[in-house]
What we know:
Elements: E1 4-10, H1 18-24, E2 33-37, H2 46-49, E3 63-66, H3 69-72, H4 76-89, E4 92-95, H5 110-145, H6 175-183, H7 189-196, H8 200-213
Helix pairs in contact: 4-5, 6-7
Amino acid sequence: MGKIVGYARVSSREQNIDRQLLALRQYVPEDMIVTDKASGKDFNRPGYQSLKVGIGKLVKGDTLYIKSLDRFSRNKDEAKKELQYFSDLGVRVKILDIPSTMTDIAEGQEWILDMINNILIEVLTSIAENERLTIRSRQAEGLAAMPVDEASGKKISKKTGRCIGRPPVQFPSDFEQYYQKWKSKEITAIAAMAALGLKANSFYKLVHQYEKEHPPS
């Protein structure tokens, strides 16, 4: 008989994983539950990867329990690939929120369970991905509705009143001096960047801003 393993995931350290653990403990020993605190957008998670490599690798005859499909993944295509991977390996995946995956059927009739599961997985992964896209859309709408700071051109958070993103690059006190040397070809752009302690993108951004504020007469 193969080993029984559980998998639980939350997206951040602030989220509570206890509900998943409580459900999994009904079928899986405490010390056989693997957890991750990571995004569900892909499978690059240390806990999950331990199910595929090393001493914790799942092999033919093993069973993997998951509370719900969205805890497995929110990416439809990736979820289907991973589920197919376990299927090809001979690992049974049981999702507690999908009753049919918990059903024991007669030997030789496993194809019925596979057919039902494939239909449910197709539907539920579509729902999970749609939820992820909806969240992204709402975030984009919220960002678009934010006021803009005229000085920096950055969006202002209504909650904090501060600009979102990295603070704008500030002009070094001797920027104009090195800018004029660079423009008159006394020094190269690389020399000017080194003297000002700026990277190329910051240097040229400040050049653009300076020339906009000080147009040639």
